[in-house]
Amino acid sequence: MESDSFRYDVALSFAGENRDYVEHLASHLRARGIRVFYDKYEQPILWGKNLYTHLSDVYRKQAKYTVIFISEHYARKVWTNHERESAQARALTENEEYILPVRFDDTELPGLLPTVAYIDARTTTPISLADTVAEKLRLAGHQEDQRDEADPGGLNRRGWQRYENRRFGFGIRFPMDWGRSHHPENSDGITIHPWGNEGRISVSAGFHFPDFEDMWNDLPGERSRIRLYTGAEADFLVHRGETDVTLRIRLISGRVEYNFVAKASTQSYFGYEDLLLDVGKSLYLISGSDRSSAYPG
User: Fold this and answer.
1) 3-139 has which fold?
2) For the chain, what are the domain ranges?
3) Do domains 3-139 and 152-294 have the same CATH topology?
4) Is 228 exposed, middle or buried (0-12, 13-18, 19+ CB in 10 A)?
5) How far, in Å, are 2, 76, 249, 276 from residue 177 at the CA level?
6) Which of 22, 209, 27 shows the shortest CA–CA distance to 124?
7) I need a surface site. Which of 41, 53, 250, 285 has the fewest CB within 10 A?
8) Are 130 and 25 in contact (CB under 8 A)?
9) Is the model's pTM score more than 0.90?
10) What does the pLDDT read at residue 167?
């Protein structure tokens, strides 16, 4: 089947004891625009379903690839073995690889030959693995979303509102019911209030000082690169605290850097992570803007 006929690019099959690593991977995959089946992201869909039937369908029919995280915990659990058997049933009908193994240890799994190439999670970070998955999909003909500035992400078709800053030449879109601070036209950005006091988003621009790069490097969190809906690549950072999560996107163009900073409670973030990423990735530069004139000298 063609990639577009699958609901997911990648399905993740793992034991709960390895969730921390897999959750970080899932976050980085989504940041790259990869459609991933990860149970925490699917709770509204899974609620009330016959999981035995539904999960079998996911791992047999709905994903381009299944990544199996092999460990001693994975080998002895009923549900992970059900997922594995469903994935192996699909693999029997494929003319190319379908199961992509990742190892936490040297446990053997029934039906998985020891000669199958794998990634070693003991020496590979979630960010690096996300890059490898993205490259695997690229080689298989997967095309990431890249839309033009006139309609970044197609978000205007959802009735989202638009903010544009002419001084620094950038814009962003966000849901119509979200609040916003009314900054003057010549200011450096906007503050958005998604859920009252539950979250806050700052979108701003400023002069980029290469000498201050250490300030960005010293920020806590996991770093990667993200592709915006315009096709531009930007820095991406997620910091998970005890009670809240901060998501940062930074785009540098010429002498100006553009910063998207979203902060929300942990509960709100994981309930609306897709939406926050959608808004952040809608950041775009306005063609023809003279951004160099924003600052004198």
Assistant:
1) Rossmann fold (3.40.50)
2) 3-139, 152-294
3) no
4) buried
5) 37, 48, 23, 14
6) 22
7) 53
8) yes
9) no
10) 83
